[in-house]
Write a structure and sequence with these properties.
- The chain is mostly helical and 541 residues long.
- Helices cover 72% and strands 1% of the residues.
- It has 17 helices and 4 strands.
- The strands form 2 sheets. It has a two-stranded parallel sheet with strand order 1-4. A two-stranded antiparallel sheet has the order 2-3.
- The model has no long low-confidence stretch (mean pLDDT 96).
- Bound molecules: heme-as and copper (II) ion.
- The site of heme-as has 34 residues, from helix 6, helix 9, helix 11 and helix 13.
Length: 541
């Protein structure tokens, strides 16, 4: 298949993602410096909040969405071996999403949307911010439709055959994202845009937070699924072995997608607008959704063990040493799993209703999500980029050793950044602050940790620059005719000849999600229309 058009589509998306990423890395380092209070010239809460809002939006919405779309198009084309369906539509979605990003960037950079990436009302941004974000989401919906159409077309053409695992994961993610984004879309369309345009005077922040919670948990799995896709479909082959179980992988993606949705109230444990019974229900669901990650840890490590033993590793742990640590994909997965141990542990602490009281709204929470998102997840985005770039630009990677240094420094930098962040949370430092206007022994005890965070941020910034440099140099290097690397998907150790429909289609799961969502969010949302709740007036920009 001549996939030049697909490669261009994927590359364009990935470049937008990574440009957003590098800009946000510079902001991140400025933020740790500002917050530490060591450089008084930097002391400006308004610049700080404009920066942290832009950083969050770029990392959580722009890097992720564009990366997932670009990766998805390429996975669909290569795993199904067919061109991307309706490319003009895909390009339309790309430009629409990019236009949305630019529109949202204007108020962000001018301090008119310093509402953080969660934009909770009654704090309100300029309408252009919400409209821009909406266009980004609409662009991503088009991507979802293209993925699902390609999935259905392939199945129709090859009845009874197992859909390639990579495409199954991508389609489950598209389904997940359609459901996930509906919550925030309702909030933005019916509350925030009318409020920011002055069409309504008040909103109910309780309803807004409930709708945002609908989105807030599953969105993190929308970001995570590409990383897990690489765990299952690239890692075993790159390590020199086989995937331990294809069926187990499908089951993990299904449970991840289905149970990510009805559990968002673990973000609202400390909020007053929902009753404790509902919170407990969502809390139990949260523990269920940790299971697919445990299954993933098991399956991926088992696959690594197969590879290590095939490469001659002996004894209980000898296989670890015989893994190809100098393969970027293998090194990345090992570092990713290491960060997942503590990142996931932090998530379990957060999810435990009583313990949440200890860490909620403290620095522990950004510590948690930097470790598990910027660490575990984004390190796999790097590995995917290093793997795909040579195929996308048809040139060998500029420097493999630079890529290895980059992955190690990302891991080291992230450990140095997030360990003190967790400690600061336990020492009572609130999240979402730029500085404190009082000093006592407690706030003074935060200082050494803030110093360490500056160092962690610096290492990360250096690492991020190496990443961009390597990709750019690869693309700009002279073309080499002989270079023809093909994408390789891992083979399961036991070939999958046939599958039950529920492991081979997203449609049954769509119905299950609908039922679970009706149970877990139906009454909690409807109650706002029965009860006489009072609205809050907007404040902010
Ligand atoms: Fe989280 C807050 C609970 C996973 C992202 N999370 C956040 C926020 C973000 C985020 C962005 O329940 C902040 C939202 C905001 O701004 O307010 N999270 C969880 C739980 C999990 C979890 C239970 N989170 C993620 C992932 C994210 C992410 C993934 C991004 C990609 N999170 C919460 C809760 C809050 C929260 C509460 C609200 C806190 C509050 O009060 O505001 C689970 O999915 C985690 C499951 C993972 C495990 C780890 C298993 C470990 C394995 C590794 C094995 C490796 C080995 C090493 C043995 C249970 C599988 C092998 C080594 C070799 C060498 C081979
Ligand atoms: Cu969550």
């Amino acid at each position: 298949m001549n996939d030049a058009a697909e490669r261009k589509l994927a590359l364009s998306h990935l470049w937008v993602a990574f440009i957003a990423f590098i800009l946000a890395c510079f902001m991140g380092e400025y933020q740790v410096l500002e917050r530490s209070g060591f450089i008084s010239a930097l002391d400006s809460p308004s610049v700080y909040f404009a920066s942290v809002s832009t950083h969050g939006v770029l990392m959580a919405f722009v890097l992720t969405t564009f990366f997932i779309m670009g990766f998805g198009y390429y996975i669909a084309a290569t795993s199904l071996k067919q061109p991307v369906w309706n490319k003009p539509l895909a390009w339309g979605a790309f430009w629409l999403a990019l236009f949305g990003v630019v529109l949202a960037a204007i108020p962000l950079l001018t301090g008119k949307a310093s509402v953080l990436y969660t934009f909770y009302p009654p704090i309100v941004a300029h309408a252009a911010f919400y409209i821009g974000a909406t266009l980004l989401v609409v662009g991503s919906w088009v991507w979802c439709v293209i993925m699902l159409v390609m999935f259905v077309q392939w199945k129709k053409a090859k009845p009874g055959q197992p859909v390639p695992l990579a495409m199954f994961a991508t389609a489950m993610n598209a389904l997940l994202w359609l459901w996930t984004s509906a919550g925030v879309a309702l909030e933005v369309l019916f509350q925030l845009i009318p409020l920011s345009l002055g069409w309504i005077d008040t909103v109910d922040p309780g309803l807004a937070r409930t709708l945002f919670a609908w989105t807030l948990h599953p969105i993190v799995y929308f970001w995570l699924i590409p990383a897990y896709t690489a765990f299952y479909v690239f890692v075993p082959k790159q390590a020199g072995g086989f995937l331990f179980s294809d069926e187990m992988a499908r089951l993990a993606f299904i449970v991840l997608a289905v149970f990510a949705l009805p559990i968002g109230f673990h973000h609202l444990y400390m909020d007053p607008e929902q009753a404790k019974g509902w919170k407990l229900l969502h809390g139990i669901g949260t523990f269920v959704v940790a299971l697919p990650t445990l299954v993933t840890g098991f399956t991926v490590i088992a696959s690594l063990e197969i590879a290590g033993r095939l490469r001659g590793g002996k004894g209980l742990f000898g296989w670890i040493g015989s893994l190809p640590w100098t393969n970027t994909m293998v090194l990345a997965v090992i570092l990713s799993l290491l960060m997942l141990i503590f990142g996931g542990f932090g998530g379990i602490v957060n999810a435990s209703y009583a313990m949440n009281a200890m860490i909620h709204n403290t620095a522990w929470v950004p510590g948690h999500f930097h470790l598990i998102f910027a660490g575990t997840t984004v390190i796999m985005y790097f590995a995917i980029a290093y793997y795909l770039w040579p195929m996308l630009v048809k040139k060998p990677l500029f420097s493999e050793s630079m890529a290895l240094v980059q992955l190690w420094t990302w891991f080291i930098g992230m450990s140095i950044l997030t360990t003190p962040w967790h400690v600061l949370g336990l020492l009572g430092q609130p999240r979402r602050i730029s500085s404190v206007v009082y000093n006592n022994l407690l706030t003074l005890s935060w200082k050494p940790y803030e110093l360490m965070m500056i160092l962690g941020g610096l290492i990360l910034l250096g690492s991020a620059c190496l990443f961009i440099y390597n990709l750019a140099k690869t693309q700009l290097s002279p073309a080499s005719e002989a270079f023809d690397q093909q994408i390789e998907f891992a083979e399961p150790i036991h070939a999958v000849e046939s599958l039950p429909e529920w492991l081979n289609d997203f449609k049954p799961w769509n119905k299950v999600i609908a039922v679970l969502m009706a149970i877990s969010f139906g009454y909690p949302i409807l109650q706002f229309f029965f009860m006489n709740t009072s609205g809050s007036s907007a404040w902010g920009f």
